[in-house]
């Protein structure tokens, strides 16, 4: 079963500054929420996809990883010791057990199941309980990127029309772009992860069209061709990495590229929709 893009985790040192930067670009940003393991987030909700701006709020609450057990908090804490930026790529899930079976059948490295609940702070000042089931897995060729699927158990409490209305017209995710020296080398993992068997390999790299948005992998030269010199020159950290996010904005007159150097390590592309 093919899985669409669910969200992107963007690790930042200063959550309020990051939220203000996204708001200045015309996005509606949710109030702050807290995880029980010491991280905090603010979200940008689109049509079935969201950006999770994430910071470490209480390091003492973070659990360390163990054999076969993934620690979301520790992974992002350690990511932030190196740089800010998109730390994790997340796909939607309808059935965590089915996801796990698919991943194991594809010979992917899977961690122990993980579920949690938290309180969501809503725009009107009220709260609601939300809960998620996560299936973490690892691409040995991309150790700096976290991957997991996410089943939202109470979508009616999570998705809110007020959070999905943006001044810049942002509506939906178009693509997430990864950067790697050898894009084709990530085909097996990404095909198993997304459930998309048909991939496109071009002179620019690798593309997988999911039910919600595309996953693309470019080499450095192709990335410069696609996103321009300013975006390429602003890249930080080791590769492979999640380098860019493209969002479809109906009504936008021309494409806007915000380089990683101006937006906490992630290049953001706002694209018109014909």
TrEMBL record:
InterPro entries: Glyas_Bleomycin-R_OHBP_Dase, Glyoxalase-like_dom
A matching Pfam family: Glyoxalase_3
UniProt superkingdom: Bacteria
Residue ranges constituting the Glyoxalase-like domain according to the UniProt record: 5-188
Protein name per the record: VOC family protein
Organism expressing this protein natively: Roseibium aggregatum
Lineage: Bacteria, Pseudomonadati, Pseudomonadota, Alphaproteobacteria, Hyphomicrobiales
